[in-house]
Write a structure and sequence with these properties.
Length: about 290
């Protein structure tokens, strides 16, 4: 197909193909780099959020829980004695200012039904229980939205059993609040759930797409300018000189021997024109000999 095209069209087709291949490579490479940067930023945010949650839980367990239980042993006050409740309440306050964060202590057998794990979380918890990994991080899509997520296992400890043994052992106020159908039967050492932190990547994905659009637009503009410049150069330095050579050659073939192949420069086209001029001289001499 290219053989049937003019030099100008052929070059434009080749440049267009180079543009398409370059754009695909540039966009794919740009997306990979920008996406890795978004993931790095999400990981940093997640680590900061997790550190805050862990620090709150540690402070409560070391400085609040046992004081509360000593002072008010019969009082049901989970906000000061249960780490999961404290972290969930703290996370809710943070989410008011930073809604992109989601904190969830998920379990297949939770006291609070809001903490029941979904299919994705169940697979991660099963991985913890089977010893496939000690912690997990990656991306997951929920309800059409992409999240960077981390998870660590929740292990039943001795301090958990007084709430999660049986409804008869648990505090009556807790049983009244959560019922008796779920959240019991824990044994020390069991992996009973996972602590998940999700960071929405909607905003970062939108920024990535915007950057890619600007990047792609910039490359397209540069290619367009380059193609226009190359087109002008090809017309002035290749197409027009060749057209002039063709025109002179046609006139000479019709007997106009006074025409000359005049090409400026010192390139292959100039060498071709000089060769045609020598051929014209030889042709003229041959015609003179034939006439005699």
């Amino acid at each position: 197909m290219l053989r049937n095209m003019s030099i100008r069209k052929r070059l434009m087709v080749i440049l267009s193909l180079v543009y398409i291949v370059s754009m695909v490579g540039a966009i794919a490479g740009g997306y990979f780099i920008l996406d890795r940067d978004s993931l790095r930023e999400a990981k940093e945010k997640t680590e900061l959020f997790t550190t805050v949650m862990s620090a709150n839980q540690k402070y409560m367990s070391q400085n609040v829980r046992y004081e509360m239980m000593d002072l008010l042993p019969d009082t049901y006050f989970p906000e000061a004695t249960v780490g999961i409740v404290m972290m969930s309440e703290t996370a809710s306050m943070i989410q008011e200012e930073y809604p992109e964060y989601i904190f969830k202590v998920a379990s297949p057998n939770p006291l609070n039904k809001d903490n029941r794990s979904d299919s994705f979380e169940n697979s991660i918890i099963a991985g913890f229980d089977n010893g496939d990994f000690e912690e997990w991080e990656g991306t997951v899509t929920k309800a059409g939205e992409r999240f960077y997520a981390t998870a660590v296992p929740v292990e039943a400890r001795k301090s958990c059993i007084w709430c999660h043994d049986t409804p008869e052992v648990a505090h009556p106020d807790m049983v009244e609040e959560y019922g008796t159908e779920s959240g019991y039967g824990y044994e020390v050492g069991d992996i009973v759930g996972g602590r998940f932190v999700y960071v929405s990547m909607t905003a970062s994905d939108a920024i990535t797409k915007q950057k890619l659009a600007l990047f792609g637009g910039g490359i397209s503009l540069l290619f367009l300018i380059a193609m226009l410049v190359i087109d002008r150069i090809i017309i002035s330095t290749v197409v027009k000189p060749i057209e002039e050579i063709v025109e002179v050659a046609v006139d000479i073939s019709r007997g106009k021997m006074n025409r000359e192949f005049n090409v400026k420069g010192n390139d292959e086209i100039k060498q071709l024109a000089d060769a045609f001029n020598r051929m014209k001289v030889s042709l003229a001499k041959a015609m003179d000999i034939l006439r005699k």
